Amino acid sequence: MAVTRRYNVVIIGGGSAGFEQAAGRDAVSSNYAYHLAPATWDFLRSTTKGTAVFGQPNGAIKCAGAPQKIAYLACDYWRRQGILDDIDVHLVLPTSGMFGVPEFSRILEQVADRYGITMHFDSEVDAGAREAVVRGLKSDATVRLPYDVMHLVPPQSAPDWIRTGPPADPASSAGYVEVDKHTLAHVRYPNVFSLGDVADTPNSKTGAAVRHQAPVVVENLRAVLAGRAPTARYDGYASCSVTTARDRMLLAEFDCTMRPAPSIPILDTTREHRDFGLLKKVGLPTLYWNFMLRGLA
Length: 297
Hints:
Blueprint lengths: L18 H4 L5 E2 L7 H10 L3 E6 L10 H15 L6 E6 L9 H14 L2 E3 L2 E5 L3 E6 L5 E5 L2 E3 L8 H4 L43 H19 L12 E8 L2 E7 L17 E2 H19 L5
């Protein structure tokens, strides 16, 4: 992926060190915290040149595509303002590629190339006083980047009352509930079920995954209450709606084998679409608030 380096703006997404101390001031913010999201927009809007850093932490997080979304939206805004060439953008990921599914990873590589984003893989970020330290996860190599704006993602885990309790997976420092990835029943407590962000399933933690998990939990819970073995199975479906511009989106749908699992037959979901941008803006909020939360979809 050819990347042209320009001036002094970096987008980093990485580790947790310094996050609490830096977030909300000195041009460091995070859309993962409700009270900080408005500051993100203020910082991005006031940046006209320099270095921007967007990052993602190690471990499972809610909607792993979201740390990339803000980077692309920021670049799209700067492009529309005619100042993107004055901003050096860096995206730091703890993974070895853009996405775990090759078909979608290739598209996101093209998106990063289109915006001229410098990529850092297998890395994490520490926030400091106007300096970001990009550290390799598999080596001792470090890169120091002065920044003008930075977006970080806090490390995530199950709530403390679950993480430190009996349902938690003892092998997981994040403390997610230890469940069978298909039946969603606890592996040690057969009358306990878990789904969504707190379940220790291998799929991405997305609302789309919950939508497919909920019917499985309901059916299996009824079976256990009736004295039967749970037979309904979750296939690992998840979906990341990766916004790549203000009016464009990649709908990455996939299963537990990390292969595409498209649900919309008309459009090629391995490509960006402006129609998906409308889906993101209007369709998905309508589906979520009016149907998913009411158990109708």
